[in-house]
Amino acid sequence: MEMTNNDFDAMAKEYEDGTWEGCGEPTMGRPKLYDEDLETVSFRLARSRIAAVDAATRRAGISKSEFYRRAVDRELAALS
Which DSSP state fits 44? Predict the structure, then answer.
């Protein structure tokens, strides 16, 4: 939904009149990226592979975590 200046003016008037009900309950912290809780996994890789992952993620514009998640998902699908 795109809001216009008129929408903001109407909200400001409600706030100034004391009738504005707000936008809902505030949530602390960053929104969840995934539907389920995540856990940390740690494993060792050769430095050359880490360097290759670093280069690939920079080219793709994704995080290393996202790279590893995608790799695990592809392997799980292949083994199914």
Answer: -
Identify the CA nearest to 71 among candidates 48, 32, 45: 45
Cα 48 from chain centroid (whole Å): 29
Over residues 66-78, the pLDDT tens digits come to: 999 999 999 999 9
**Element at 37 (helix H, strand E):** none
The Cα 6–Cα 8 span in angstroms is 5
Side-chain half-sphere of 62: how many Cα atoms within 13 Å? 12
pLDDT of 43: 93
- Is the overall model pTM greater than 0.85, yes or no? no
Angle subtended by helix axes 47-60 and 64-79, to nearest 10: 100
| Residues in CB range of 67: below 8 A, 6 or more apart | 53, 56, 57, 60
